[in-house]
Amino acid sequence: MNILVTGNKGYIGSVLTEMLLEKGHSVVGFDTGFYDDCQLEEKKFNIKQISKDIRNAEKQDLNGIDAVAHLAALSNDPLGELDQNLTEEINFKATINLAKLAKEVGAKRFVYASSQSMYGVSSIVEELSEDAEKNPITAYAKTKWQAEQELKKIADENFVVVCFRPSTVFGASSNLRCDIVFNNLVASAYTTGKIEIKSDGTPWRPVVHVKDVSCAFIAGLEAPKELVQNQSFNVGIENGNYTVKDLAQAAQKSVEGSSLVFTGEHGKDSRTYKVSFEKILAVLKDYYKPEFNLEKGGKELVDFFKKINFTEEMFRGRQCNRLPQLKHLLSEKKINNNLLWQ
Fold first, then answer.
1. pLDDT digits (tens, 9 = 90+) for 51-74
2. What's the CATH code of the domain at 115?
């Protein structure tokens, strides 16, 4: 298949692109390039690259495309709150426009990178299934839920739409993020020798490896239409819900000699939820085969850090943290307040 991957230079996108090429697909990349100078490891792929803001996508960008894997977005809650109108433009309006363009040119599939943040803060003890009540609190979460609902209206027998809701992602990537929980904990242990948890460590967080998320997206592209049409899937692994304490202890084990302290100064964190992965593990069992647990992912991260001579400056700097990088581009007047290149 000839697959358009939006956000292909990002944290997940760079991993997904490599995996698609390894499977024999051809890839067209579509990325505005906000994080081009954040690469920790140079990787060059033999693909056609469109350097453009997703809001400016045109029909001609999709000529010859069989399927779209749409990852491009303002990628987490702090970014989403930077300007809520921009979040709606990028994460919702541009997404729907892209899907309509894809359908017009005859693409057969649209795989959407959605989010579990749409569940919000849950008071339910049980694991949340895909049909659980949605309680989106942030602009990011709201736009992801809106986009899912609207995308499914566009689907028909010739245009397959499937939405994946990844857990919080972890694992090595040439465009690494350290503003996400397990990567942050392992990076802290590796570069400073210690992990400090400011809550009591009891909140639950579902997490999943970046390669397993990419595997899910590929399943959405390759699985039979009847399995995925107009479906949403939580993406994770069996027993993939962990407390913050579990994550911190796993990170500490990954870095020999590191220390772990629970300061508890923030008391009990109310952001807690568990998610069910029964659906994806059952429905897509022949296509989605996750391989990473925390131990394997932690070791991979440490090996990656050694390989690239990872430092505390890199860990805390804009190279691995999305909001500081955008603020840097704004302060340097490389992008304007609408997050468009000057």
1. 999 999 999 999 999 999 999 998
2. 3.40.50.720
Asked if the structure places residue 168 within a domain, the reply is yes
pTM score: 0.95
Determine how β-strand 109-113 pairs with β-strand 160-166.
parallel
In a domain, 92, yes or no: yes
Residues 183-220: pLDDT tens digits?
Answer: 999 999 999 999 999 888 988 999 999 999 999 999 99
Task: State the first-to-last Cα distance of the chain, in angstroms, to the nearest integer.
Answer: 35
Domain contains 76: yes
Total count of domains within the chain: 1
Side chain identity at 126, as an amino acid letter?
A: E
